[in-house]
From TrEMBL, chains A, B:
Keyword check for Signal: yes
Protein name: M20/M25/M40 family metallo-hydrolase
Family annotation (Gene3D superfamilies): 3.30.70.360, Zn peptidases
Domain of life: Bacteria
A GO BP annotation: proteolysis
Keyword Transcription belongs to the record: no
One Pfam match: Peptidase_M20
Keywords noted in UniProt: Hydrolase, Metal-binding, Protease, Signal
A GO MF term: metal ion binding
Domain Peptidase M20 dimerisation: 251-395
Annotated signal peptide: 1-29
InterPro entries attached to this UniProt entry: Cyt/Met_Dipeptidase, Peptidase_M20, Peptidase_M20_dimer, TAT_signal
Length: 504, 504
């Protein structure tokens, strides 16, 4: 879950965002409270950072079945230490989730969402071992934690926990009650998180919440912030062509010299893949795939235009290493497509011999790893059904469609208290946030924003991080830029946010 | 280089082959000579087998740049020990080759071709470490060497060397002079072997030869033998689509969420691959690819029919793990296509994330490993040029065509002295060989059968082996079936062959 464009490219001193125009005054924290909390955060800085490093050293990676159930058990301990009255591991059909409550006797209750799993990492691509929790001084950026999970999502989450520790240590009551839900399968598409959210007592607790948020390092290198009003849904799956299922071709890799008389599952996969997108590879051609797309509203179009105006196309292209967008479209059109167009992407291809040089085999099996991003009002279930029907209609019913995870898109209104409060806290700190209509990436917010809860849900947080899913992912601990908050400042930001949520 | 069909499926007591009908009587070895040689081979059995095992333990794998130049230097030593007057490493633009001569003062001179490299091996797929040279008792087959290179091609080649040692040890002169050429890049398509064969002094020596042969374990489990009258040519290459070369899409793997605005090299590869074959994946669609195919002659058609009649379709299907041939064709038609149809095969696909589960990346590069088998009168150079033109014509000129090796098809007349002598030696031992018009696999015989040499070239040898390019490749050392020759018997067979070649 990441938004490199806004994270890396917001311009300084840009014009007031359309969304910001609507901001009311908010009751924020008292200077005295913040001063005391800041002092405590400074005092316990080393302890708080070590807590994060220890968490990094216990990776949970669902795709590799690594670090379970330890990851869930460790999270429960982190929550209890931070002051939650109750915290428990919640078993699911897959990796366990976590449910916790912190009753502060406050008027309002807020939901908090964590993920304790991280993306895979290939150590050979890293400047430091990805699970050591190394602190590296990045010139111009500051002392940073360079590790898998540094910013996605353990860094921001540990920073939020540090804020809770500060309330506890200074004897302050939280301004809001908290209901916590966490999962360990976010990076494989949250296939079982609904079992956590929909467990009767968890659902009942969440129904008492006004909104749900996830700690997130929202600042870009210049200090600016993006607020995401939603995210695309996603389906991750493997398309598997095999002699086994097909009934033609070999069941294992055989010598390639007999291709003249034996069918090839690899060619079958290529032919099936070819039908899924337009010739330029950019428009999904799955029958009926986009039927339920809800057109952008006038307000959403205006927000996209403002987003394009206030962010740097050149920096975005640089961050992706591209020289042009599809069809040579404009930056505003690129932003618009990222927020409104579904995709069908090849994550990976695997068949036969994959080592150095060649090997004369006719593979018995060929696999395409696919992710499909969907927008309102498309659903994961309907899109998967349409993919299967599309393949079956063309005679590719033997190609296995193995979905590993996925969920629907999520949307939260710019007029919701959650978004208005976020904007107010940033503005009170001199930051005019850019509104992002829809994150091109995905997170399972639909479980909160969709029925039966229908709650506002989003991300909040000061701080800077980057490299989610990439080598050398980092999260700034001590910022070299005064406009960007380091660990302690970001922790204080969560306190400001909780005060603002509680005081409305 | 392997022919599983004939190797595994010849029927016992089958009708007399069309080719065999034409066999004249041949002058074979004297019983006294063979008796003495057999006794010597029995006496030095352990030494001869250990020589083979030691060779196995020194693998040369071009694709992994492993075992060079040691492999070539070791082969030179093996040749000198076996009685060659001269043997030298021959440098090439790639891995070194070997040239050697044995002047026995005989009337006739024969060329011998070896490969000292072997195919890659994944130890995790083997019952024994592939480079240990382990001897395993295979029930119903006999004591066998299970190792990479056991039958392809060190086993048969070491057996031939054992025969030369026997001549030397018993003080017998070879019935023919030998000119030897060897290479260490056969498994990557012999990209530089022509530099060895065409070196002035090597070419001059080869021009004195009547024919060239490669030691080969030709017997199937029932003792029957196939004689190959030629082999398909091959081109091995990688098709590489990349943001780097394309100028669109990312240069490295990036987060997949931006597919809506960024082009995909992986989809580009799929679209380009789609144009190379028919919808069923079985007919090459490269513009003009088959223009130069020479139709089968009436004699070749008759040989294919005889081959189909005398081999078991059921056993062939079983050996490949298939239940039907392409288009549900008959066994005779399958044999015909294997000998007369060019192919375009996907050896492997590699793009983006290839590990367990999924990873949401948009790959910056996608690679298809391809082998193309060609038949007379197609050539490797012309076929490669046509592939490049085909891609360029469709706007895929940015897709890199990286050829790693390949060469033209090879054909030797059934009426040549080489083939007639082979058949006569087998028949003298009660084996009526099946004639295979063209091996579906490949070997660089074109360097001998094509200009400027235009010599008959092929394979000869008793003995049994299987699993070339596959796990648990083996070569029988002590046969459980009296109809199948073990190491000593196969070595004696080479002596019989040399006598027959020398006595014509």
């Amino acid at each position: 879950m990441t938004d490199p464009i806004a994270r890396r490219t917001m311009l300084q001193g840009a014009a007031l965002g359309a969304a910001a125009l609507a901001m009311p005054q908010m009751a924020l924290a008292s200077p005295a409270d913040l001063k005391a909390l800041a002092a405590e955060l400074a005092k316990s800085h080393d302890t708080n950072v070590k807590r994060l490093q220890d968490w990094i050293r216990l990776p949970s990676i669902a795709a590799e079945n690594r670090g379970y159930p330890e990851g869930a058990e460790h999270l429960v301990k982190l929550l209890l230490d931070a002051g939650f009255n109750h915290a428990e591991v919640v078993p699911t059909s897959g990796k366990p989730g976590v449910f916790a409550k912190l009753d502060a006797g406050a008027k309002r209750t807020i939901g908090v969402y964590f993920m304790y799993d991280v993306k895979q990492a290939d150590p050979s691509e890293w400047v430091v071992p990805p699970f050591d929790g190394a602190l590296v001084d990045k010139p111009g950026v500051g002392l940073s934690l360079v590790a898998r999970g540094a910013t996605n999502q353990k860094g921001p989450q540990a920073t939020f926990l540090a804020a809770l520790h500060a309330f506890k240590a200074t004897g302050r009551k939280l301004p809001v009650n908290l209901v916590f839900v966490g999962e360990g399968e976010e990076e494989i598409g949250s296939p079982n998180f609904h079992e956590v959210v929909h467990r009767a007592d968890v659902l009942a607790a969440l129904k008492r919440c006004e909104s749900v948020f996830m700690p997130f390092a929202s600042q870009n290198p210049d200090g600016g912030v993006t607020i995401n009003l939603g995210a695309k849904g996603i389906i991750e799956l493997e398309l598997i062509a095999s002699g086994e299922k097909w009934g033609k071709g070999p069941k294992t890799d055989i010598h390639s010299s007999y291709k003249a008389s034996i069918d090839s599952p690899a060619w079958r996969l290529v032919k099936a893949l070819d039908t899924l997108v337009s010739d330029d590879g950019n428009t999904p051609m799955i029958d009926g795939y986009g039927d339920n797309i809800r057109p952008l509203t006038a307000q959403e179009k205006a927000l996209n235009a403002d987003y394009a105006k206030r962010t740097s196309e050149a920096a975005a292209k640089k961050s992706f290493g591209v020289t042009q967008w599809v069809d040579n479209i404009s930056w505003e059109e690129a932003v618009t497509r990222n927020t409104s167009r579904p995709t069908v992407n090849i994550e990976g291809l695997v068949a036969g011999y994959t080592g150095p040089g060649g090997k004369t085999v006719l593979p018995g099996k060929a696999v395409a790893k696919i992710d499909m991003r969907i927008v309102p009002d498309m659903t994961a279930a309907d899109s998967l059904a349409k993919l299967k029907a599309h393949l079956a209609k063309r005679g590719y019913g033997d190609i296995e469609v193995k979905m590993s995870g996925g969920y629907d898109p999520t949307t939260t209104s710019i007029d919701s208290a959650l978004i208005k409060t976020q904007a107010a806290v940033y503005k009170a700190n001199g930051i005019d946030p850019v509104m992002n209509v829809r994150l091109a990436g995905s997170w399972p917010g639909y479980l909160f924003t969709g029925p039966p809860l229908n709650l506002p849900a989003g991300h909040f947080g000061f701080g800077l991080g980057s490299g989610a899913h990439a080598p050398n992912e980092f999260y700034v601990i001590e910022s070299a830029n005064p406009k960007v908050r380091g660990f302690d400042g970001a922790a204080l930001g969560y306190a400001e946010f909780l005060y603002a949520l509680g005081a409305r």
